[in-house]
Design goal:
Layout (H helix, E strand, L loop, with lengths): L22 H14 L4 H13 L1 H13 L1 H9 L18 H18 L2 H8 L4 E7 L5 E8 L9 E6 L5 E12 L2 E10 L6 H11 L5 H15 L4 E4 L10 H5 L2 H7 L3 E2 L5 E3 L16 H25 L5
Parallel strand pairs: 5-6
Antiparallel strand pairs: 1-2, 2-3, 3-4, 4-5, 6-8, 7-8
Length: 319
């Protein structure tokens, strides 16, 4: 009977070679498929077929996992990481080779940018509290940086906006990618809460935040995170290139949202966001709404500064 223990811990002796397929590597593929889907024969079979279709990418990916203490540990709590290069990921149109490169680039950039304690807290603990917002009505909200859920196809990291110890009101999922020698932050999804009370939850939050939406606050925190890493390219997936679509997407357009932030379509038909979002000028605002917008700008400024200051004081960027 096949073991459900992590097969990558004992695979260093396996010869990762190109075709023709070696028996010990084929055995490893079977063990990995069983480890990933111990109770689902159909999904195990699909993973094996995908491994054979994209054999060269499979060899490289499994070699990278087995040689990386971080990745080989991460697949214990996030088994979904195993087959990400072989499914839709981040945006439509990526090949298996590109998906693999994006995943490897993300973890290389992330681990090269932060100290081990920060990495462990973000990936293996409950996440990192980047800041708190207390409204005039005494409502308290938090911003948390964490690894995306196990089965997530929309990026490796997430920043969520929520009340303490409650479900998120907004969450942005993203990855750090390498682009012609420069790092870019690619946002693949932004989502609101689920459930029958979700609309009321968002409405109440907007009301206490002078009309600001949770999505807008999450985006501001993403801009601060990018600023801390000196990232100048911030991209957001378009409606056309969304990797995952559901009923929620029918009522929320990424295109409209990005255009409202000043985003411009690039050559790949995704949106390039500005590093700093333009805001309405005081003289362009009706007098009866000036106080409201002033409060909104104050909250956004606070979010950006607090996230940036937290990252500067609580983390050590590695050279």
């Amino acid at each position: 009977m096949l073991s459900q223990s992590n097969p990558f811990f004992n695979s260093q002796s396996v010869e990762y070679t190109d075709l023709p397929l070696k028996a010990d590597f084929l055995r490893l593929l079977v063990e990995i498929a069983y480890y990933r889907y111990p109770n689902n024969l159909k999904q195990r079979t699909k993973l094996l077929i995908r491994n054979l279709i994209w054999y060269r990418e499979t060899v490289e990916w499994y070699r990278q996992i087995s040689c990386s203490p971080l990745l080989s540990t991460l697949v214990i709590s996030h088994k979904g990481l195993i087959d990400k290069p072989f499914k839709r990921y981040l945006r439509l149109g990526f090949s298996a080779k590109e998906r693999l490169k994006n995943i490897l680039d993300h973890y290389a950039i992330f681990t090269d940018s932060f100290d081990p304690l920060f990495i462990h807290q973000a990936l293996f603990d409950k996440g990192i509290n980047l800041g708190r917002i207390e409204t005039s009505t005494k409502e308290v909200y938090e911003l948390t940086l964490s690894i995306s859920e196990d089965e997530c196809k929309e990026g490796e990291l997430a920043i969520s906006f929520h009340k303490p110890n409650e479900a998120y009101l907004s969450i942005a999922r993203f990855s750090l990618l390498s682009n012609n020698g420069e790092v870019k932050l690619f946002i693949s999804a932004i989502q609101g809460p689920k459930g029958v009370q979700s609309k009321k939850m968002v409405h109440d939050a907007c009301k206490s935040l002078y009309g600001l939406t949770p999505n807008r606050i999450v985006i501001e925190s993403c801009l601060a995170f990018a600023s801390f890493l000196n990232i100048k390219q911030i991209e957001f997936v378009s409606d056309k290139n969304q990797v995952f679509k559901n009923k929620h997407n029918k009522h929320f357009s990424y295109d409209h949202f990005c255009e409202g932030l000043g985003g411009k379509l690039n050559s790949k038909e995704d949106y390039l966001l500005p590093q700093f979002i333009n805001r309405k000028k005081r003289e362009d605002t009706p007098s009866k709404r000036r106080a409201k917008y002033q409060h909104q700008h104050s909250i956004l400024d606070s979010v950006f500064v607090n996230v940036l200051n937290y990252l500067k004081t609580e983390t050590k960027v590695l050279p």
